[in-house]
Amino acid sequence: MDLVREGYTFTDPSIVLGGAVGADGGEVVSDAVVRLPLASMNRHGLVAGATGTGKTVTLQVLAEQLSDAGVPVFLADIKGDLTGLATPAEGGGKIEERMAELDQEWAGAAYPVELLNLGGHGVGNPVRATITAFGPTMLSKVLQLNKTQESSLGLIFYWADQRGLALLDLKDLIAVTQHLISEEGKEDLKGLGGLASSTAGVILRELIALSAAGGDVFFGEPEFETADLLRTTAEGKGVVSLLELPGVQDKPVLFSTFLMWLLAELFQDLPEVGNPDKPKLVFFFDEAHLLFDDASDAFLDAVEQAVRLIRSKGVGVFFVTQTPKDVPDSVLAQLGNRVQHALRAHTPNDAKALRATVSTFPTSDYDLEEVLTSLRTGEAVVTVLSDKGAPTPVARTMLRAPQARIGPSEESVVRTAVAGSALSSKYAEALDRESAHEMLAARMEAATAEAAQAEAAQAAAEEAKTKESSRARTREDPGMVEQVVSSTAFRSMLRSAGTVIGREISRSIFGTRRR
After folding, report:
1. Are residues 149 and 233 in the same domain?
2. Please, where are the H alpha helices in 45-196?
């Protein structure tokens, strides 16, 4: 225990996780306080454990103390439990017992909470992204496309960008894809290579399915600005941004990928700060296994790069999942801070996961396989990076109790938090400015009008030609009556008739008519 006590004594500012427990799981050693240096929080971390072992409460403990230290926090609230951060805990009962055993100070407290949601699904202000900002690699993950389809989607994005067609929402991307497999679109693509109709058909079907599932409101404007995650209050507390996700639990790939987009945007937007005394933001990535399931190589490369490089921007990322094996080795190697709750070993796969988890910890005097299967709720095995950057000794730890309510806040508290948000005027109303869908529709309408005008002009020309031809025939080809009247036979007949008629008239006048 002396090794643990010395290993967690830091001179730099730190947050308190709890107190070390004896190797046999007995009493808490109250003077062996387990801490995590603020300066190490941007070295990233992992909070893992089986369902029901206390991961969510651990997130709350971390978020509270980060906020107290003036560090903004981002949390994905999948079950809606974390709104309790806005309400002070009442104390007493098990909380009082736990804190007495730890011999640590505790007082109920509420924290500054900003409630967000994905595109209008849930309470709070909507977080939206444009299709262009999301990009083909991440969108391919959401659509679960294969490599060929992902490449084709990249071609669609490239063509739209070259033509100045803004891809803001799903209907823009659908319109561009439909255009590129039309006869006119095939001509447009000649210089870039073709787009197979079968591949485009798959992409279109997935886009339409995503739109029907609510993606039509996830993508669009106004796009969320990552600077709004970095706020502190006038009292110096870090704002805790909660992305409420209960309304999209049936779309796990979408929300996990959306979190990755936020992280990528942070990396792009923030300046380099090196190794600050405390992070500018700590980002908790819940249900992390969903992010990596069936991910393409390009997507995994994007995640690895973002995690590896974002620490120099002062951002710490904590992945939250059931076992370390849910996270790719290339990412796991960068997670220096570990809080591992209990694991189960009921099946051969569970036993294999347990052994893999043990292998990720530094060597210690613990029998970690035994300890990890015997941890009680609210306990965890901890190792972090010290203020000197070295791993601390593995410590079986009883975690301290949160100072805010465990579980959701009352509805009235949530409504008050939403009503008081400074972001409502910025994000509450969706925008729908002219983009690819409208531009292509206008282009088609103009082409249709031009074709109709050309057709009308051709019809008018043909009608005029017909009329002129008719007039010409009238001039050149006299009618039957005119032909008869002007004929020699007709004139001879008229002369004969005139002679006969004249003779008869003369006879009548002079009385010479025959009787």
Report:
1. no
2. 55-68, 93-102, 131-143, 147-162, 170-180, 183-188
Instruction: Say whether both 335 and 412 belong to one domain.
Output: yes
Check if the beta carbon of residue 76 is closer than 8 Å to that of residue 245: yes
Place of tokens 């502190």: 232
User: Tens digits of per-residue pLDDT, 80-119?
Assistant: 889 999 999 998 889 999 999 999 999 999 999 999 988 7
Pick the range with the lowest mean pLDDT from 1-15, 391-405, 446-460.
446-460
Main-chain dihedrals φ then ψ at residue 99, nearest 5 degrees? -70, -30
pLDDT tens digit sequence for 222-268: 999 999 999 999 999 999 999 987 666 667 777 777 888 888 899 88
Q: How far apart are CA 301 and CA 137, in angstroms?
A: 10
Q: Which of 138, 133, 302, 116 is nearest to 223 (CA)?
A: 133
Residue carrying the six token digits 């007039």? 471
Residue range 444-454, pLDDT digits in tens: 777 667 667 77
Structure tokens at 362: 């530094």
Could you tell me if 203 and 251 lie in one domain?
A: no
Give Cβ neighbours of residue 341 (< 8 Å, ≥ 6 apart). Answer: 47, 48, 49, 50, 53, 54, 55, 58, 375, 379, 380
Do 284 and 314 reside in the same domain of the chain? yes
Number of folded domains that form the chain: 3
Crossing angle (nearest 10°) for helices 252-269 and 131-143: 140
Domain of residue 507 covers 478-515
In this structure, are 278 and 377 located in the same domain? yes
Full 3-state SS string of 172-234? HHHHHHHHHCCHHHHHHCCCCCCCCHHHHHHHHHHHHHHHHHHHHHHECECCCCHHHHCCECC
